[in-house]
Each structure stands twice: as C-alpha cells, then as structure tokens.
Amino acid sequence: MNSKPPITRARPGRGLRGIVRAFILGAVAAALVGCVYFPRATTQPIPTLASRDARGGEGRAETLIVFLPGRGDRMEDFVQKGLSAELSRAGVRADWISVDAHLGYYRARSVIERLKKDVITPARQRGYRRIVVVGISLGGLGGLLYERDQPGEIDALVLMAPFLGGKDKVFAEITAAGGPEAWASARQNESSEAKNSDLERDLWSFLGKRHAQLPPTWLAFGEADRYADGHRLFAPLIPDKRVFRDSGGHDWKTWQVLWREVCERSDVFAEEKKMRVR
What we know:
Strand order of the largest sheet: 1-3-2-4-5-6-7
Number of domains: 1
CATH topology: Rossmann fold
CATH class: Alpha Beta
Distance between the termini: 26 Å
Helix content: 40-55%
CATH architecture: 3-Layer(aba) Sandwich
Largest sheet: 7 strands, mixed
Structural class: alpha/beta
Radius of gyration: 18 Å
Number of helices: 13
Strand content: 5-15%
C-alpha cells in the first residue's frame, strides 16, 4: 500500500438537515465505541495507501477500488490480509486505494467530506471511469452514508459485514412491519423530531426508501457475525446473486473467504476481468 488521496468530511449543512446529519455521524461513533474512546488524529488530507498505478503509474486502469476499513482496523490491513493481492489472483484489472477512514473521522463528522475531497473527486479528475467502494464493518456503513449524502458519485458498493445497527428492538420493529420498505413507509407518518432522534432508525429509513436507487450493491457476511441480524434484513433489498454468505463471524478470516468469493464468483468485476483478458 502506498500513500494516496484522502477521505471526506461530512460537513454539517445549513439548517435542520445539516444538524441532523451531523448528529447521526456523531451517534455512529457513540454506538460503535461505547464509553471508552481513544481518538486518533484526523488529518487533512486523509492518509491513504494505493497501488503503484493509482499513484501515477503509466498503466493506470479505468477502475479504482476504494477500500474503507472497519473500526480498529488500519488501511494497511487490506494489503497485509491479502485483499489487494486477491484482485490480481482473480484477474481483476483495477487499481486500488485504501483509506485511513478510522473512527475518529466519523466522530468528527468529517468522513464524507474527506472522502469526497481527498479520494472520490481526485479519482474522477485523474480519469477513473468506474469507482467501486469496498467497505468492511464500519467502512460498509461509511459507504452507505456516502451514497446517501453524495448520491450517484460511486458506481458500485461491496459491503462486507457492514455495521447496520445492533439494537434488537429496531430489528424487531422492522421485522414486525414486514421488512425495511414497509417499516420506512410507515415511519413517514412520525413527527420529524421522532424520526431524527435515532441513528439506526434513520439509516434503515434511508435503506427502506432508497434501496432501489443505490448503485449496484453486493453484500457479504458470516452467518455467525454479531451484526448478522441487520445483514439478513438488508439482504432481501438486493438481488440474491449479489449476496454472499459464509459460516464465520465478524473477523478477517471470514472476510478473506468472502472477498475471494466476491472476486471469483460475482459479477461486480466482470468488465475488469474482460479487460484483463484483452
């Protein structure tokens, strides 16, 4: 991995909508961290590591894969755990960049802004035709939040065990309502104050109402994952062929298996494999 563009910072917009978004990103940090939190520095631009061609090599591909880490993980993990190398093994012709989008950026409510300014926009300016965001756990949530706030800027999402909340009460409400779509539709009748007071409910409202507008999205998770209840609720919102399951839990061993399956068996990189053959 080598140093590359940074991530964005979700700058609160003006008015109630901006305040709500700022609150939600702050709540994400609280939900994931608990009472004890030792923040890492949130530098600008956000630190990144990238493949040689993504750093300006002569053989730049047309596709850029953006890796977003989970809570407690590092951008180097995508190299050390073999995810970047798996692309080559699977015959995927693409460059990659791993972003140090740690929990501090979510807590500072700056992750969306940094991603946009330091990673996504520069990538488009360098000529990348297709941008695929691959997020693990917290990074999966980050990918969804980016699509919610900056719709249409990324071309595909691969969500590996994404954090979609952990409250059994919320999941029970969604299940009882008949799924995310029905639950989100019914929630339109709630007061704006009630709707904007809970991170998980806001996230599921977004998924229930706008899942059809998401870019092509793949979901991969372990059945023993501690967040699997959320994954199972989300799975029906996307085509079955884009859902990959393993028996494992919320750990790198499981994610390595799932990533290999995604690279080898899914059609997320179908075009990139054709280009490799040519």
